[in-house]
Amino acid sequence: MIWLHTYLGIISGWLLFVIFVTGTLSYFTPEITYWMMPERQVIVSDGFDRNIVVDEASYTQTKTQTNTQTKTKGAQESQRFQIEQSLNYLQHHAKNASSWRIYLPTAREQHWYVQWREGKIRHTVSFNKDATLLGSTTDTKGGLFFRNFHYTLQLRGYGGRYIAGIAAMAMLLTLFSGIYTHRRFFKDFFTLRKGKISKWTSDLHALVGIVTLPFCLMICISAIMIYAIMYTPFSANMHFEQGERGVNKAIIPSLPPLTNSTSTAANSVKSSAAGASEYMLSKSIAYSAILTSLKAQWQEPHAIKRITVEAPGNENSRFIIERTKSLTVSNRADRLVYSSYTATPLEGYEDESAPATFRRIMYGLHQANFATTGLRWLLFGLGVLSCVLIASGLIIWVNQRRTNLSKGQKRIPLSLHIMEKGNIASIMGMAIATPVFLLANRLIPADTLNRANMEISAFFVAWLYCLVHVIFRPAKNAWFEQTLVAVVSFISLAVVGICMPFERIKGAVGTADITYLSFFLGFVLCGAVFSALAYWLRVRLSASSLSGATCNQDNLETKKE
């Protein structure tokens, strides 16, 4: 078991570290995107959820009760205002579209935009909090880069998913073998020896492993179950003509396809007045449908995330209302379906099957969209500790092999040399490439073509630099020098975040935009942590140099005698 734990960790350690770092950052995907797109403004605040839909009387009462928490007009704070403005824009600019989608902002995702498709072309238009169009938006992947890289490894097709799945399976075996290796839980938990680095790193590894064990088990099991059909496609290919896609169609409920037949009510509407499309999507009917559905089926008003209008120019058009996913662990949103002409309820989605619900629960546990702010920070902290667990395990193996080398053995084995260099390139590479990616977001001009890909290229170029640097430098020097680069990167990121653009940070201070300002504190904290690490490495490097000089002096004196 000890052998299995050791070598499984060595083989998959670098990959697991990268996956866990990007996965930990993915807990704040909307927040990272918000920081990387400074043109966005706070539309929904934590103090007053402007997405709540209420009737006029309760809306007036709510406005009066929360007057100290809001600064904009009541009409602009309601979701009704956002829906009406979105429909108005789509009616005038997307008449020939095959479908419309309205995405409403939430407290985490401050993005209000509409989408429509004309043929194969998809159009997207974003709005500010006062319903004015955002003239230009930053071309960036934002936090989605970390989330996508977490399970695709930036590979096309399904190759990255297979590799990430194998890594998750290896992590599970490593955890189970680690339980056997450190089966004396209570003794290991309260043991932290000082002195030699090999001793306290081993104790730290055991301590962090015990603390993060439930979290790591949940993450690995849910990651495997999400793509269980893809990893074991044999049964799906045998029983379904389209394999995995056939299984998904069988277990995931969907709406019946739109028919060409038209209802009598729709025909009468069309013949009685010109411009039936305006009537079809009139503000009163659309909002009445939303309000009625919330009162009748959801019992109390809740935030709406998305509205989809299928075939907006046809009599059989459907109006689909989707609730936010932040209220359920299963990562499933409640949806209501109405006729766009009469606002009458239509046949909606069937109840999900047990396999589909189980997979959605795995999705929900893995992504934690249901988590409140405090719980999300707790999961983020456990993710950071999991990264420490993996990194400390890799370092322990190298230190133990160096200790076991015979005193007369001057040549380091190739395997140890590769592991030592690879540890630095993977651990410090992520510590440098991440702030460089964020720095590129601020430094690359906004009008640059293919700007989003340039940010991603900056990430990989910085990572490649770390690999090349460690090849030509001694390991101890490489640790120290790359830690210094990480310090400079995070401090530079904090400074650039204030200066570029200065109006954005000024506005964030004026409006108490905690989300935006917390990034500055995070960059400073990371810079301080790496500064302390650099100081500690510098002390060890100086002590090692002094010890080496003393040994050389003793050898010279011995030869003279």
UniProtKB/TrEMBL annotation:
Q: Which domain of life is it from?
A: Bacteria
What keywords sit in the KW lines? Membrane, Transmembrane, Transmembrane helix
Q: Where exactly are the transmembrane stretches of this chain?
A: 6-28, 162-180, 204-229, 377-398, 424-444, 456-472, 484-502, 514-537
User: Which residue positions does the secretion signal occupy?
Assistant: none
InterPro entries in the cross-refs: PepSY-ass_TM (IPR005625)
**Sorted alphabetically, which PANTHER family does this protein's record hold?**
IRON-REGULATED INNER MEMBRANE PROTEIN-RELATED, PEPSY DOMAIN-CONTAINING PROTEIN
Its name, as the record gives it, is: PepSY-associated membrane protein
Q: Kindly list the organism's lineage.
A: Bacteria, Pseudomonadati, Pseudomonadota, Gammaproteobacteria, Alteromonadales
